[in-house]
Design brief:
Strand order of the largest sheet: 4-5-6-9-8-7
Order of helices and strands: HHHHHEEEEHEEHHHEHEEE
Low-confidence stretches: 1-6, 271-276
Number of strands: 10
Oligomer: single chain
Structural class: alpha+beta
Mean pLDDT: 85
Number of helices: 10
Shape: globular
Helix content: 25-40%
Strand content: 25-35%
């Protein structure tokens, strides 16, 4: 556990956060250009903006849910949903007896391969990842078909924040017999790293082939909570199988993308994307 998160928040700093957020949130919510979004999504976006602008910093204690209710025009239930969404996206964590603490999170992913969204100006949105879970997979699925049914498959769940606009949820499947680094490294040591570069550093295997497919699926309760949509909302499932020139599978990935107004760039060639 991070030393930062082990420490007890400073009471003076906590009071400053309450004052500063009390001034910031009403203005941010009044200025939103997407009022059609559910109220809890509007509030979670405003809180992410407060994080991005340094009004609230990592290690800070958020105001209580009742305090946030007084700061905003929203009900306690709406505030609770917004804070829960921030927890599921990896921005904050609960600490019993203390409250909701902001986690270290602004570690930008370098050279993303699959989550390349652009704004109206043509600029790529920065990607800020947080690892939510790492587990050994025991059930069969598309991952076992492409990686091999006898493989020791690890699944890494990540929330990929696209600037302060929206989040993408990722299941990343890898054979840890071939790439033990994903099991042995502490999460904090590879959370913001580009996975393909970690794999290249360990084995020298370059990416040569991408097999990609897109389909719409209803969001499960778990997925919906992580990407800020209602359960059963139709979301884009982007499935990717990545192979070497000898047709060995490097990894299989599923990305769940909520409705948004940004262009997703899907490249058919690898030039400039997978240099070691």
């Amino acid at each position: 556990m991070d030393t930062l998160l082990d420490s007890r928040p400073d009471h003076i700093r906590a009071a400053t956060v309450i004052v500063d957020l009390g001034d910031f949130l009403p203005k941010a919510l009044a200025a939103t250009d997407r009022p059609a979004a559910p109220k809890h999504i509007q509030l979670s976006r405003a809180l992410v903006r407060a994080l991005d602008e340094g009004i609230v910093r990592e290690g800070d204690k958020l105001p209580s849910e009742s305090d946030l209710t007084e700061m905003t025009p929203y009900s306690l239930g709406t505030v609770q949903k917004a804070v829960k969404g921030l927890m599921q996206s990896g921005f904050v964590m609960r600490r019993p007896g203390i409250g909701t603490i902001v986690k270290p999170w602004r570690k930008r992913l370098t050279e993303p391969l699959h989550c390349r969204f652009t704004n109206k100006e043509g600029d790529y949105l920065p990607v800020y990842p947080s690892i939510l879970n790492r587990t050994l997979v025991t059930d069969a699925g598309p991952w076992s078909v492409v990686l091999g049914e006898t493989s020791q498959i690890f699944r890494i769940d990540r929330c990929l924040r696209m600037d302060d606009e929206f989040s993408v949820f990722s299941h990343f499947f890898v054979d840890i017999d071939r790439y033990p680094i994903f099991e042995t490294l502490q999460i904090k040591d590879f959370e913001s790293n580009n996975f393909k570069k970690l794999m290249y550093a360990q084995s020298g295997d370059p990416i040569s082939q991408l097999r990609q497919s897109l389909t719409f699926v209803p969001a499960s309760a778990e997925i919906a909570g992580h990407i800020g949509v209602e359960e059963k909302t139709s979301v884009l499932l982007f499935k990717v199988t990545v192979r070497t020139s000898s047709d060995d599978t490097l990894y299989y990935q599923e990305l769940y993308i909520p409705p948004n107004n940004f262009d997703l760039h899907i490249d058919s060639h690898l030039d400039g994307l997978v240099s070691p």
